Amino acid sequence: MSHSSVETPIKKKRQMSAQYPRSESAADTAISENDPPHEGIFRRTLSLVRNSIGSTLVLIGFAGLFYYGHHNDWKIPKFAVLTGVKGSVVDDWCEEHAVPESICITCDPTLMPLGPDYGWCPVHGVHNCPLHHPDVAQMKEPPTADELIEDFNRAERALTVTARKQNNSECRVYKSRIQFASIETVKQAGVDVELVERKPVVESITGNGEIIYDPTLQASLASRVPGSVWTVYKKVGDRVSKGEVLAIVDAVQVGDLKTNLLRSLAEEKLQLQNVTRLTAARDAIAGSKILDAEAALAKAQADVLSAEQSLQNLGLSVQIESLHGKSERQVLDSLRILGIPDFVWSQIDSQTVTANLLPIVSPMDGVVRERFVTTGEVVDPTRVLFLVADMSQMWLKLSIPLEEIDKLAIGQKIRFTADGSHQKIEGVLDWISTSANAATRMLDVRAILANPDGRLRNETFGTGEIILREESDAIVIPNEATHWEGCCQVVFVRNTHYFDSPESPKVFHVRSVRLGISHGKFTEVIAGVLPGEVIATAGSDVLRAQLLKNNLGAGCDCVAE
Questions:
Q1: Which fold would CATH assign to domain 117-201+471-554?
Q2: At what angle do helices 252-280 and 287-313 cross, to 10 degrees?
Q3: Which of 232, 301, 319, 390 has its CA 20 to 30 A from that of 274?
Q4: For residue 296, how many other CB atoms are within 10 A of its CB?
Q5: So where are the chain's domains?
Q6: What is the pLDDT of residue 493?
Q7: CB of 401 within 8 A of CB of 445?
Q8: How far, in Å, CA of 53 to CA of 189, rounded?
Protein backbone atom coordinates (compact mmCIF):
# COMPACT_ATOMS: atom_id res chain seq x y z
CA MET A 1 0.00 0.00 0.00
CA SER A 2 1.47 3.36 -0.99
CA HIS A 3 1.84 6.27 1.49
CA SER A 4 -0.57 8.44 -0.41
CA SER A 5 -3.35 5.88 0.03
CA VAL A 6 -2.85 5.93 3.82
CA GLU A 7 -2.88 9.70 4.27
CA THR A 8 -6.04 10.22 2.31
CA PRO A 9 -8.40 8.89 5.02
CA ILE A 10 -6.55 10.84 7.71
CA LYS A 11 -6.88 14.05 5.78
CA LYS A 12 -10.62 13.46 5.34
CA LYS A 13 -11.01 12.87 9.06
CA ARG A 14 -9.19 16.13 9.89
CA GLN A 15 -11.35 18.04 7.45
CA MET A 16 -14.54 16.69 9.05
CA SER A 17 -13.26 17.57 12.50
CA ALA A 18 -12.59 21.09 11.41
CA GLN A 19 -16.02 21.34 9.86
CA TYR A 20 -17.85 19.75 12.86
CA PRO A 21 -15.79 20.58 15.95
CA ARG A 22 -16.51 18.55 19.13
CA SER A 23 -17.79 20.18 22.31
CA GLU A 24 -15.38 21.43 24.86
CA SER A 25 -16.27 18.76 27.35
CA ALA A 26 -15.91 16.06 24.76
CA ALA A 27 -12.55 17.52 23.66
CA ASP A 28 -11.42 17.77 27.26
CA THR A 29 -12.42 14.20 27.99
CA ALA A 30 -10.80 12.83 24.86
CA ILE A 31 -7.59 11.07 25.69
CA SER A 32 -4.83 11.51 23.23
CA GLU A 33 -2.77 8.57 22.51
CA ASN A 34 0.23 10.70 23.31
CA ASP A 35 -1.15 12.08 26.73
CA PRO A 36 0.26 10.62 29.95
CA PRO A 37 -2.20 8.39 32.00
CA HIS A 38 -2.49 10.74 35.03
CA GLU A 39 -3.41 13.71 32.86
CA GLY A 40 -6.37 11.85 31.27
CA ILE A 41 -7.85 10.90 34.65
CA PHE A 42 -7.65 14.52 35.83
CA ARG A 43 -9.54 15.76 32.81
CA ARG A 44 -12.32 13.25 33.27
CA THR A 45 -12.77 14.18 36.93
CA LEU A 46 -12.89 17.88 36.15
CA SER A 47 -15.53 17.31 33.48
CA LEU A 48 -17.77 15.31 35.84
CA VAL A 49 -17.62 18.02 38.51
CA ARG A 50 -18.59 20.74 36.07
CA ASN A 51 -21.53 18.70 34.71
CA SER A 52 -23.02 18.09 38.22
CA ILE A 53 -22.91 21.74 39.39
CA GLY A 54 -26.44 22.57 38.00
CA SER A 55 -28.21 19.65 39.68
CA THR A 56 -26.47 20.37 42.96
CA LEU A 57 -27.57 24.01 42.92
CA VAL A 58 -31.21 22.97 42.28
CA LEU A 59 -31.17 20.58 45.23
CA ILE A 60 -29.65 23.26 47.46
CA GLY A 61 -32.43 25.67 46.37
CA PHE A 62 -35.20 23.21 47.24
CA ALA A 63 -33.63 22.53 50.61
CA GLY A 64 -33.52 26.26 51.38
CA LEU A 65 -37.15 26.76 50.32
CA PHE A 66 -38.30 23.89 52.52
CA TYR A 67 -36.36 25.27 55.48
CA TYR A 68 -37.91 28.76 55.04
CA GLY A 69 -41.45 27.48 54.61
CA HIS A 70 -41.19 25.21 57.64
CA HIS A 71 -40.05 28.06 59.90
CA ASN A 72 -42.43 30.72 58.46
CA ASP A 73 -45.75 28.79 58.23
CA TRP A 74 -45.34 28.66 54.45
CA LYS A 75 -46.24 32.36 54.06
CA ILE A 76 -44.83 34.38 51.21
CA PRO A 77 -42.75 37.23 52.59
CA LYS A 78 -43.92 40.74 51.92
CA PHE A 79 -42.21 42.73 49.22
CA ALA A 80 -40.88 45.13 51.83
CA VAL A 81 -39.09 42.29 53.59
CA LEU A 82 -37.58 41.07 50.36
CA THR A 83 -36.35 44.52 49.48
CA GLY A 84 -35.00 45.12 52.96
CA VAL A 85 -37.45 47.94 53.84
CA LYS A 86 -39.16 45.93 56.62
CA GLY A 87 -39.88 48.75 59.04
CA SER A 88 -41.90 50.83 56.56
CA VAL A 89 -44.99 48.45 56.47
CA VAL A 90 -46.98 47.34 59.58
CA ASP A 91 -48.78 43.96 59.53
CA ASP A 92 -52.19 45.00 61.13
CA TRP A 93 -54.55 42.10 60.43
CA CYS A 94 -55.98 39.53 62.82
CA GLU A 95 -56.36 36.38 60.76
CA GLU A 96 -58.30 34.57 63.48
CA HIS A 97 -61.08 37.18 63.84
CA ALA A 98 -60.92 38.73 60.33
CA VAL A 99 -60.51 42.35 61.50
CA PRO A 100 -57.54 44.73 61.83
CA GLU A 101 -55.59 43.67 64.86
CA SER A 102 -55.46 47.21 66.15
CA ILE A 103 -59.27 47.23 66.63
CA CYS A 104 -59.85 43.55 67.47
CA ILE A 105 -61.89 43.54 70.69
CA THR A 106 -61.41 39.80 71.16
CA CYS A 107 -57.64 40.05 71.17
CA ASP A 108 -57.72 43.28 73.16
CA PRO A 109 -60.91 43.34 75.33
CA THR A 110 -59.96 46.76 76.68
CA LEU A 111 -61.11 48.27 73.38
CA MET A 112 -64.69 47.25 74.34
CA PRO A 113 -64.88 45.82 77.86
CA LEU A 114 -67.35 42.99 78.42
CA GLY A 115 -70.51 43.93 80.29
CA PRO A 116 -71.69 42.30 83.51
CA ASP A 117 -72.00 38.52 83.42
CA TYR A 118 -75.08 37.35 85.32
CA GLY A 119 -74.66 33.77 84.19
CA TRP A 120 -77.46 31.23 83.97
CA CYS A 121 -81.12 32.03 84.66
CA PRO A 122 -82.77 28.86 86.00
CA VAL A 123 -86.25 30.41 85.73
CA HIS A 124 -86.21 31.13 82.00
CA GLY A 125 -83.36 28.88 80.84
CA VAL A 126 -81.10 31.51 79.22
CA HIS A 127 -77.83 33.24 80.03
CA ASN A 128 -77.77 36.91 81.01
CA CYS A 129 -81.58 36.95 81.16
CA PRO A 130 -82.81 40.44 80.14
CA LEU A 131 -86.11 39.87 81.98
CA HIS A 132 -84.21 39.79 85.27
CA HIS A 133 -81.34 42.06 84.16
CA PRO A 134 -82.59 44.55 81.55
CA ASP A 135 -79.21 46.32 81.59
CA VAL A 136 -77.81 43.59 79.30
CA ALA A 137 -80.24 44.60 76.53
CA GLN A 138 -78.66 46.51 73.64
CA MET A 139 -81.18 49.36 73.67
CA LYS A 140 -80.94 53.12 73.83
CA GLU A 141 -83.84 53.33 76.26
CA PRO A 142 -84.37 50.63 78.89
CA PRO A 143 -87.79 48.93 79.05
CA THR A 144 -90.33 50.14 81.60
CA ALA A 145 -91.16 48.18 84.73
CA ASP A 146 -94.70 47.47 83.49
CA GLU A 147 -93.39 46.04 80.22
CA LEU A 148 -90.98 43.77 82.07
CA ILE A 149 -93.77 42.53 84.36
CA GLU A 150 -96.00 41.71 81.38
CA ASP A 151 -93.16 39.94 79.56
CA PHE A 152 -92.31 38.06 82.75
CA ASN A 153 -95.93 36.86 83.07
CA ARG A 154 -96.07 35.88 79.40
CA ALA A 155 -92.90 33.83 79.82
CA GLU A 156 -94.36 32.08 82.85
CA ARG A 157 -97.53 31.16 80.94
CA ALA A 158 -95.51 29.87 77.99
CA LEU A 159 -93.32 27.67 80.19
CA THR A 160 -96.34 26.34 82.09
CA VAL A 161 -98.33 25.21 79.06
CA THR A 162 -95.80 22.68 77.75
CA ALA A 163 -92.14 21.66 77.90
CA ARG A 164 -89.79 23.78 75.77
CA LYS A 165 -86.48 22.98 74.14
CA GLN A 166 -83.76 23.64 76.68
CA ASN A 167 -80.37 25.32 76.51
CA ASN A 168 -77.30 23.97 78.27
CA SER A 169 -76.51 25.87 81.45
CA GLU A 170 -72.79 25.10 81.02
CA CYS A 171 -72.59 26.77 77.61
CA ARG A 172 -70.21 29.73 77.36
CA VAL A 173 -70.83 30.94 73.82
CA TYR A 174 -72.99 33.76 75.17
CA LYS A 175 -69.74 35.48 76.12
CA SER A 176 -68.66 35.60 72.47
CA ARG A 177 -68.83 38.65 70.25
CA ILE A 178 -68.64 38.71 66.46
CA GLN A 179 -66.84 41.76 65.04
CA PHE A 180 -66.69 43.13 61.50
CA ALA A 181 -64.01 45.45 60.12
CA SER A 182 -66.54 48.00 58.85
CA ILE A 183 -70.15 48.57 57.87
CA GLU A 184 -69.19 47.82 54.26
CA THR A 185 -67.87 44.45 55.35
CA VAL A 186 -71.21 43.67 56.98
CA LYS A 187 -73.02 44.56 53.76
CA GLN A 188 -70.64 42.52 51.64
CA ALA A 189 -71.25 39.53 53.89
CA GLY A 190 -74.98 39.83 53.14
CA VAL A 191 -75.99 40.33 56.77
CA ASP A 192 -79.34 42.06 57.27
CA VAL A 193 -80.91 43.18 60.53
CA GLU A 194 -84.40 43.73 61.95
CA LEU A 195 -85.95 44.98 65.17
CA VAL A 196 -87.28 42.57 67.73
CA GLU A 197 -91.06 43.11 67.55
CA ARG A 198 -94.32 42.31 69.27
CA LYS A 199 -97.05 40.33 67.53
CA PRO A 200 -100.09 38.30 68.61
CA VAL A 201 -99.47 34.55 68.79
CA VAL A 202 -101.76 31.61 69.49
CA GLU A 203 -100.51 28.27 70.74
CA SER A 204 -102.92 25.44 70.09
CA ILE A 205 -103.44 21.76 69.40
CA THR A 206 -104.90 21.09 65.97
CA GLY A 207 -107.12 18.20 64.93
CA ASN A 208 -109.66 17.21 62.33
CA GLY A 209 -113.24 17.61 63.45
CA GLU A 210 -116.91 17.32 62.59
CA ILE A 211 -119.99 19.27 63.67
CA ILE A 212 -122.97 17.11 64.62
CA TYR A 213 -126.36 17.58 66.27
CA ASP A 214 -126.38 17.61 70.04
CA PRO A 215 -127.98 14.24 70.85
CA THR A 216 -129.34 15.63 74.12
CA LEU A 217 -131.34 18.20 72.15
CA GLN A 218 -133.03 15.82 69.71
CA ALA A 219 -136.38 14.06 69.81
CA SER A 220 -137.77 11.06 67.94
CA LEU A 221 -141.56 11.37 67.73
CA ALA A 222 -143.95 8.43 67.33
CA SER A 223 -147.60 7.71 68.00
CA ARG A 224 -148.06 6.22 71.48
CA VAL A 225 -150.92 4.04 70.32
CA PRO A 226 -151.66 2.29 67.01
CA GLY A 227 -153.71 4.18 64.47
CA SER A 228 -153.71 5.88 61.09
CA VAL A 229 -152.37 9.30 60.20
CA TRP A 230 -155.29 11.70 59.99
CA THR A 231 -153.24 14.69 58.75
CA VAL A 232 -149.63 16.00 58.66
CA TYR A 233 -148.79 19.67 59.19
CA LYS A 234 -144.97 19.89 59.15
CA LYS A 235 -142.26 19.02 56.65
CA VAL A 236 -138.48 18.71 56.79
CA GLY A 237 -136.79 22.00 57.63
CA ASP A 238 -139.80 23.62 59.28
CA ARG A 239 -139.10 25.34 62.57
CA VAL A 240 -141.38 24.28 65.38
CA SER A 241 -142.05 25.50 68.90
CA LYS A 242 -142.47 23.44 72.02
CA GLY A 243 -146.02 22.00 72.09
CA GLU A 244 -146.67 22.69 68.41
CA VAL A 245 -148.62 20.00 66.53
CA LEU A 246 -146.75 18.19 63.74
CA ALA A 247 -149.41 15.65 62.82
CA ILE A 248 -152.67 14.06 64.09
CA VAL A 249 -153.30 10.33 64.38
CA ASP A 250 -156.73 8.72 64.44
CA ALA A 251 -156.46 6.04 67.16
CA VAL A 252 -159.40 4.01 68.42
CA GLN A 253 -157.75 3.53 71.81
CA VAL A 254 -157.86 7.29 72.35
CA GLY A 255 -161.61 7.33 71.78
CA ASP A 256 -162.04 4.44 74.20
CA LEU A 257 -160.10 6.27 76.92
CA LYS A 258 -162.19 9.40 76.43
CA THR A 259 -165.37 7.35 76.63
CA ASN A 260 -164.11 5.65 79.77
CA LEU A 261 -163.42 9.04 81.32
CA LEU A 262 -166.89 10.23 80.33
CA ARG A 263 -168.43 7.14 81.92
CA SER A 264 -166.34 7.53 85.07
CA LEU A 265 -167.38 11.15 85.43
CA ALA A 266 -171.04 10.21 85.06
CA GLU A 267 -170.68 7.45 87.67
CA GLU A 268 -168.88 9.80 90.02
CA LYS A 269 -171.65 12.34 89.63
CA LEU A 270 -174.30 9.70 90.35
CA GLN A 271 -172.54 8.31 93.43
CA LEU A 272 -171.95 11.81 94.74
CA GLN A 273 -175.67 12.53 94.50
CA ASN A 274 -176.46 9.22 96.24
CA VAL A 275 -174.11 9.93 99.13
CA THR A 276 -175.56 13.43 99.51
CA ARG A 277 -179.12 12.08 99.60
CA LEU A 278 -178.35 9.33 102.09
CA THR A 279 -176.40 11.66 104.32
CA ALA A 280 -179.35 14.01 104.49
CA ALA A 281 -181.58 11.09 105.62
CA ARG A 282 -179.04 9.67 108.06
CA ASP A 283 -181.61 9.39 110.91
CA ALA A 284 -184.07 7.37 108.81
CA ILE A 285 -181.79 4.82 107.21
CA ALA A 286 -179.21 2.33 108.31
CA GLY A 287 -175.66 3.51 108.60
CA SER A 288 -174.41 0.63 106.48
CA LYS A 289 -176.15 2.05 103.42
CA ILE A 290 -174.32 5.33 103.86
CA LEU A 291 -171.03 3.47 104.09
CA ASP A 292 -171.79 1.49 100.94
CA ALA A 293 -172.66 4.71 99.09
CA GLU A 294 -169.48 6.39 100.20
CA ALA A 295 -167.45 3.33 99.06
CA ALA A 296 -169.14 3.43 95.66
CA LEU A 297 -168.32 7.15 95.40
CA ALA A 298 -164.71 6.52 96.23
CA LYS A 299 -164.53 3.82 93.54
CA ALA A 300 -166.10 6.17 90.96
CA GLN A 301 -163.61 8.89 91.85
CA ALA A 302 -160.75 6.38 91.48
CA ASP A 303 -162.04 5.41 88.04
CA VAL A 304 -162.06 9.09 87.06
CA LEU A 305 -158.46 9.48 88.18
CA SER A 306 -157.47 6.32 86.29
CA ALA A 307 -159.09 7.51 83.07
CA GLU A 308 -157.52 10.94 83.51
CA GLN A 309 -154.08 9.41 83.99
CA SER A 310 -154.46 7.18 80.94
CA LEU A 311 -155.13 10.20 78.76
CA GLN A 312 -152.26 12.11 80.28
CA ASN A 313 -149.98 9.18 79.46
CA LEU A 314 -150.80 9.82 75.80
CA GLY A 315 -149.97 13.48 76.17
CA LEU A 316 -153.60 14.60 76.54
CA SER A 317 -153.88 16.80 79.58
CA VAL A 318 -157.37 16.92 81.13
CA GLN A 319 -158.61 19.56 83.58
CA ILE A 320 -161.14 17.47 85.56
CA GLU A 321 -162.29 20.41 87.66
CA SER A 322 -163.40 22.23 84.52
CA LEU A 323 -165.61 19.26 83.56
CA HIS A 324 -167.55 19.14 86.82
CA GLY A 325 -170.98 20.68 86.53
CA LYS A 326 -171.17 20.15 82.76
CA SER A 327 -173.61 17.93 80.96
CA GLU A 328 -172.52 14.73 79.26
CA ARG A 329 -172.78 16.45 75.86
CA GLN A 330 -170.61 19.32 76.99
CA VAL A 331 -168.09 16.94 78.48
CA LEU A 332 -168.02 14.92 75.24
CA ASP A 333 -167.44 18.03 73.15
CA SER A 334 -164.58 19.08 75.45
CA LEU A 335 -162.97 15.64 75.27
CA ARG A 336 -163.34 15.47 71.47
CA ILE A 337 -161.09 18.53 70.96
CA LEU A 338 -158.69 17.55 73.73
CA GLY A 339 -155.13 18.46 72.63
CA ILE A 340 -156.19 19.65 69.18
CA PRO A 341 -155.06 23.22 68.33
CA ASP A 342 -157.64 25.85 67.50
CA PHE A 343 -156.49 26.29 63.90
CA VAL A 344 -157.56 22.68 63.20
CA TRP A 345 -161.11 23.24 64.40
CA SER A 346 -161.39 26.31 62.22
CA GLN A 347 -160.97 24.04 59.19
CA ILE A 348 -163.29 21.14 60.15
CA ASP A 349 -166.73 20.49 61.63
CA SER A 350 -166.07 19.89 65.31
CA GLN A 351 -169.50 18.29 65.75
CA THR A 352 -168.94 15.47 63.31
CA VAL A 353 -165.21 14.86 63.72
CA THR A 354 -164.13 11.69 65.49
CA ALA A 355 -163.09 11.72 69.14
CA ASN A 356 -160.17 9.37 68.39
CA LEU A 357 -157.72 12.13 67.44
CA LEU A 358 -154.27 12.10 69.04
CA PRO A 359 -151.95 15.06 68.25
CA ILE A 360 -148.18 14.46 67.73
CA VAL A 361 -146.55 17.52 69.33
CA SER A 362 -142.95 18.73 69.50
CA PRO A 363 -141.37 18.54 72.95
CA MET A 364 -138.92 21.36 72.19
CA ASP A 365 -138.13 24.35 70.05
CA GLY A 366 -136.23 23.22 67.00
CA VAL A 367 -136.28 22.16 63.40
CA VAL A 368 -137.84 19.11 61.76
CA ARG A 369 -134.78 17.09 60.77
CA GLU A 370 -136.61 14.15 59.23
CA ARG A 371 -140.19 13.22 58.38
CA PHE A 372 -141.10 9.57 57.77
CA VAL A 373 -144.90 9.69 57.41
CA THR A 374 -147.65 10.77 55.06
CA THR A 375 -151.41 11.16 55.52
CA GLY A 376 -153.34 7.88 55.75
CA GLU A 377 -150.46 5.63 56.77
CA VAL A 378 -151.00 3.11 59.52
CA VAL A 379 -148.61 3.70 62.40
CA ASP A 380 -147.74 2.16 65.75
CA PRO A 381 -145.48 3.04 68.71
CA THR A 382 -142.45 1.31 67.12
CA ARG A 383 -142.38 3.58 64.09
CA VAL A 384 -140.62 6.99 64.22
CA LEU A 385 -142.66 9.68 62.50
CA PHE A 386 -140.49 12.78 62.98
CA LEU A 387 -136.98 13.75 64.13
CA VAL A 388 -136.82 17.19 65.71
CA ALA A 389 -133.53 18.84 66.72
CA ASP A 390 -132.80 21.98 68.68
CA MET A 391 -130.04 23.61 66.60
CA SER A 392 -129.31 26.44 69.01
CA GLN A 393 -126.44 24.29 70.25
CA MET A 394 -124.24 21.83 68.33
CA TRP A 395 -121.46 19.39 69.16
CA LEU A 396 -117.95 19.53 67.76
CA LYS A 397 -115.97 16.28 67.86
CA LEU A 398 -112.21 16.48 67.31
CA SER A 399 -109.53 13.81 66.93
CA ILE A 400 -106.34 14.80 68.76
CA PRO A 401 -102.95 12.99 68.78
CA LEU A 402 -102.71 10.84 71.89
CA GLU A 403 -99.37 12.38 72.92
CA GLU A 404 -101.08 15.76 73.40
CA ILE A 405 -103.37 14.53 76.18
CA ASP A 406 -101.31 16.13 78.96
CA LYS A 407 -102.02 19.58 77.49
CA LEU A 408 -105.82 19.19 77.49
CA ALA A 409 -108.16 20.47 80.17
CA ILE A 410 -111.93 20.88 80.46
CA GLY A 411 -112.96 24.47 79.80
CA GLN A 412 -110.31 25.28 77.18
CA LYS A 413 -111.42 27.41 74.26
CA ILE A 414 -111.81 25.76 70.85
CA ARG A 415 -111.88 27.40 67.42
CA PHE A 416 -113.29 25.53 64.45
CA THR A 417 -112.94 26.41 60.76
CA ALA A 418 -115.14 24.51 58.34
CA ASP A 419 -113.65 23.26 55.09
CA GLY A 420 -113.98 25.93 52.41
CA SER A 421 -114.72 28.66 54.95
CA HIS A 422 -112.54 31.29 56.60
CA GLN A 423 -114.93 32.01 59.46
CA LYS A 424 -113.87 30.73 62.88
CA ILE A 425 -116.43 29.31 65.29
CA GLU A 426 -115.65 29.25 69.00
CA GLY A 427 -116.69 26.74 71.63
CA VAL A 428 -115.63 25.26 74.97
CA LEU A 429 -114.04 21.86 75.54
CA ASP A 430 -116.40 19.88 77.80
CA TRP A 431 -115.41 16.20 77.37
CA ILE A 432 -112.22 14.18 76.85
CA SER A 433 -112.49 10.54 75.91
CA THR A 434 -111.11 8.00 78.36
CA SER A 435 -109.84 5.72 75.58
CA ALA A 436 -107.93 6.13 72.34
CA ASN A 437 -109.11 4.94 68.96
CA ALA A 438 -107.69 1.46 68.44
CA ALA A 439 -107.07 1.98 64.72
CA THR A 440 -105.83 5.58 64.53
CA ARG A 441 -104.42 5.99 68.07
CA MET A 442 -106.18 9.33 68.22
CA LEU A 443 -108.11 10.76 71.15
CA ASP A 444 -111.67 12.06 70.75
CA VAL A 445 -112.68 15.28 72.47
CA ARG A 446 -115.90 17.27 72.36
CA ALA A 447 -116.85 20.91 72.49
CA ILE A 448 -120.16 22.74 72.74
CA LEU A 449 -120.78 25.26 69.96
CA ALA A 450 -123.43 27.96 70.25
CA ASN A 451 -125.59 28.19 67.12
CA PRO A 452 -128.17 30.90 67.76
CA ASP A 453 -128.68 31.76 64.11
CA GLY A 454 -128.64 28.16 62.88
CA ARG A 455 -125.75 28.67 60.46
CA LEU A 456 -123.91 25.54 61.66
CA ARG A 457 -124.79 22.38 59.79
CA ASN A 458 -124.76 18.77 60.83
CA GLU A 459 -121.84 16.66 59.53
CA THR A 460 -119.74 19.69 58.61
CA PHE A 461 -116.05 18.75 58.43
CA GLY A 462 -113.14 21.05 59.15
CA THR A 463 -110.18 21.80 61.42
CA GLY A 464 -110.37 22.59 65.09
CA GLU A 465 -107.85 24.28 67.36
CA ILE A 466 -107.77 23.77 71.11
CA ILE A 467 -106.35 27.03 72.42
CA LEU A 468 -103.60 26.41 74.97
CA ARG A 469 -102.37 29.98 75.18
CA GLU A 470 -103.16 33.24 73.43
CA GLU A 471 -100.89 36.28 73.65
CA SER A 472 -101.70 39.64 72.09
CA ASP A 473 -98.20 41.19 72.45
CA ALA A 474 -95.70 38.34 72.38
CA ILE A 475 -92.01 38.98 71.60
CA VAL A 476 -91.22 37.57 68.16
CA ILE A 477 -88.23 37.35 65.81
CA PRO A 478 -87.89 36.17 62.18
CA ASN A 479 -87.28 32.45 61.85
CA GLU A 480 -83.91 32.92 60.11
CA ALA A 481 -82.56 34.95 63.05
CA THR A 482 -82.19 32.01 65.43
CA HIS A 483 -79.54 29.27 65.26
CA TRP A 484 -78.78 26.09 67.18
CA GLU A 485 -75.03 26.21 67.74
CA GLY A 486 -74.71 22.78 69.30
CA CYS A 487 -76.02 23.19 72.81
CA CYS A 488 -77.91 26.50 72.85
CA GLN A 489 -80.37 28.43 70.73
CA VAL A 490 -78.72 31.77 69.96
CA VAL A 491 -79.32 35.04 68.14
CA PHE A 492 -76.88 37.80 67.24
CA VAL A 493 -77.75 41.17 68.78
CA ARG A 494 -76.21 44.30 67.31
CA ASN A 495 -74.31 46.49 69.73
CA THR A 496 -76.14 49.63 70.75
CA HIS A 497 -73.12 51.84 69.88
CA TYR A 498 -72.82 50.39 66.38
CA PHE A 499 -73.45 53.75 64.65
CA ASP A 500 -71.94 56.08 67.23
CA SER A 501 -69.01 56.84 64.91
CA PRO A 502 -67.17 55.28 61.94
CA GLU A 503 -64.50 54.10 64.38
CA SER A 504 -66.92 52.42 66.82
CA PRO A 505 -66.59 48.62 66.73
CA LYS A 506 -69.09 46.88 64.48
CA VAL A 507 -70.02 44.17 66.93
CA PHE A 508 -72.79 41.59 67.32
CA HIS A 509 -73.31 39.98 70.73
CA VAL A 510 -74.17 36.29 71.01
CA ARG A 511 -77.34 35.89 73.11
CA SER A 512 -78.95 32.61 74.15
CA VAL A 513 -82.75 32.57 73.79
CA ARG A 514 -85.67 30.33 74.80
CA LEU A 515 -88.13 29.86 71.98
CA GLY A 516 -91.89 29.33 72.08
CA ILE A 517 -94.40 28.71 69.30
CA SER A 518 -93.68 29.41 65.61
CA HIS A 519 -96.25 31.37 63.59
CA GLY A 520 -95.57 31.58 59.88
CA LYS A 521 -92.35 33.55 59.34
CA PHE A 522 -91.95 34.46 63.01
CA THR A 523 -91.01 32.59 66.18
CA GLU A 524 -91.98 33.59 69.70
CA VAL A 525 -89.14 34.34 72.13
CA ILE A 526 -90.01 33.42 75.71
CA ALA A 527 -86.82 34.97 77.08
CA GLY A 528 -83.46 36.20 75.78
CA VAL A 529 -84.17 39.42 73.88
CA LEU A 530 -86.41 42.45 74.36
CA PRO A 531 -88.47 44.46 71.86
CA GLY A 532 -86.39 47.26 70.36
CA GLU A 533 -83.15 45.30 70.16
CA VAL A 534 -81.65 44.85 66.68
CA ILE A 535 -80.76 41.32 65.60
CA ALA A 536 -79.15 39.76 62.53
CA THR A 537 -81.68 38.01 60.29
CA ALA A 538 -80.91 37.27 56.64
CA GLY A 539 -77.28 36.26 56.32
CA SER A 540 -76.94 35.58 60.04
CA ASP A 541 -75.49 32.19 59.16
CA VAL A 542 -72.28 34.11 58.36
CA LEU A 543 -72.07 35.11 62.02
CA ARG A 544 -72.80 31.55 63.11
CA ALA A 545 -69.99 30.28 60.89
CA GLN A 546 -67.59 32.80 62.43
CA LEU A 547 -68.77 31.81 65.91
CA LEU A 548 -68.10 28.14 65.20
CA LYS A 549 -64.72 29.02 63.68
CA ASN A 550 -63.72 31.03 66.75
CA ASN A 551 -64.70 28.17 69.05
CA LEU A 552 -63.19 25.46 66.87
CA GLY A 553 -59.70 25.73 68.25
CA ALA A 554 -60.69 26.47 71.82
CA GLY A 555 -63.45 23.89 71.97
CA CYS A 556 -66.79 24.25 73.72
CA ASP A 557 -67.26 23.98 77.47
CA CYS A 558 -70.68 22.36 77.10
CA VAL A 559 -72.17 19.22 75.65
CA ALA A 560 -75.07 19.49 73.25
CA GLU A 561 -78.33 18.30 74.76
A1: 2.40.420
A2: 160
A3: 319
A4: 17
A5: 23-91, 117-201+471-554, 252-355
A6: 97
A7: no
A8: 54
